[in-house]
Structure formats: C-alpha cells, structure tokens
Design a protein that fits this description.
The complex is a heterodimer of chains A (113) and B (114). By secondary structure, chain A is an all-beta fold. Chain A is built from no helices and eleven strands. In chain B, strands 2, 4, 5, 6, 9, 10 and 11 form a seven-stranded mixed beta sheet that branches. The chains are: A mainly beta (113), B mainly beta (114).
C-alpha cells in the first residue's frame, strides 16, 4: 500500500528565506507526483505535476524535484513571501497505473513578515 | 471557465437525514473523484469515476453512493447521515492520461451531522 510522508509537519520562516519541503513515498512505481497548496478553509490548488520521466519542474519561484529510485520529492520555494503561507500537500498514484491518489498530511508553512 | 464547482458550500444535517452533494467540471475531463478531508487523517478517496458510465470504490466508500450523471457531473449521496460523516468533501477531476493525470479540485462542501 502506498504511503506518503511529509516532513516537517509545520515550518515557520522569516520573509525572504529560501526553503525546502520534503515528501517521501513507499511505492516508486508511479507515473507522476503532484504538489498542491491549500489555504485555510479552501480547496486544493495544483502547483506542479512532475512526470516520472522528469527530474525537475519549475513554476515561478517554485521548483519541484523527483527522485523515483529513492522515493523522494522536494518542493523548493525561493524568496518566501507572507502570501506563501499555506499548507502544502504532495500526492502520488496509489499504485502502478492507478487513477487514485495517496496524499501526505501536508506541511503547514508560515512566512513571518 | 469555472473549473470544478460544488454545491452546497455548507450543510448541516441531523442523524439519519439524506442529502446529495453536487459536482460539475467544465474542463472536458473524463475522470472525476470524491474525497473527504478530516483533521489528522488527511485526504481520503471515497469514490471515483474513471470515465463516463463507470464508478469504483475508493478507500472509504461505506455510507456513500455516487452517480456519474454525464461527463460533466458527478454526485455523492449520503442515504442516512451519521456524525462520523462530518467532514469537508472535495470533488476533483482529471484527464484519463495516466502519465499527465493532474487533478483539479473544487472549493469543497463543509458538512456537519448532528
């Protein structure tokens, strides 16, 4: 059974700092990995999807990497801003060829002005 | 282009009452999903529909039924609500491409069962 772990559960950083969020998964037979952002009381917003053939994907100040062999992904946020404060979730397919996603429990990020 | 929409946004039910949560997407996606999100438990899949005309159970299907009404709409029904079904419910959709299966979520329905 696929399991996804996100460490740390919470992170507080001063504005302007670069930071890394971690995601690990147990079953590496995946086609892709997706990172989401969730603001309090809101739905999930898709940030990045990395295909298994890719090693990195970038969108603005966000950079996500994927190492299938080690079962790890990182989300790098450059020059953090207070508006980046949210919970960040990663998700991977529950099994080879599965449409179902298994989610981590998220990292709650607070960027202090 | 509204993406994924859900109704209602909030609902309070008494134990034993029934209700249907509605979801619609305008992205021409084949696949649709229903999740629930609970503190400490994260997001868990209730049911999904890989394509129009098909539905399958997810991780936590007990107490729920679904209907894929057409390609755009996917509803979730609680026949006899229980306090354990108090949760936030999210609908999502994606293409059928397994490699590029990016899921897009609706804003959620906050359900309280008394």
């Amino acid at each position: 059974k696929q399991e996804v772990t996100q460490i740390p559960a919470a992170l507080s950083v001063p504005e302007g700092e670069n930071l890394v969020l971690n995601c690990s998964f147990t079953d590496s037979a995946i086609y892709n990995l997706q990172w989401f952002r969730q603001d309090p009381g809101k739905g999930l917003t898709s940030l990045l999807l990395i295909q298994s053939s890719q090693r990195e994907q970038t969108s603005g100040r966000l950079n996500a990497s994927l190492d299938k062999s080690s079962g790890r992904s990182t989300l790098y946020i450059a020059a953090s801003q207070p508006g980046d404060s949210a919970t960040y979730l990663c998700a991977v397919p529950s099994g080879a060829g599965s449409y179902q996603l298994t989610f981590g429990k998220g990292t709650k990020l607070s960027v202090i002005p | 282009n509204a993406g994924v929409t859900q109704t209602p946004k909030f609902q309070v039910l008494k134990t034993g009452q029934s209700m249907t949560l509605q979801c619609a997407q305008d992205m021409n996606h084949n696949s649709m999903y229903w999740y629930r999100q609970d503190p400490g438990m994260g997001l868990r899949l209730i049911y999904y529909s890989a394509s129009e005309g098909t539905t399958d159970k997810g991780e936590v299907p007990n107490g729920y039924n679904v209907s894929r009404l057409n390609k755009r709409e996917f509803s979730l029904r609680l026949e006899s609500a229980a306090p354990s079904q108090t949760s936030v419910y999210f609908c999502a959709s994606s293409s059928t491409d397994r490699v590029f299966n990016e899921q897009f979520f609706g804003p959620g329905t906050r359900l309280t069962v008394l």
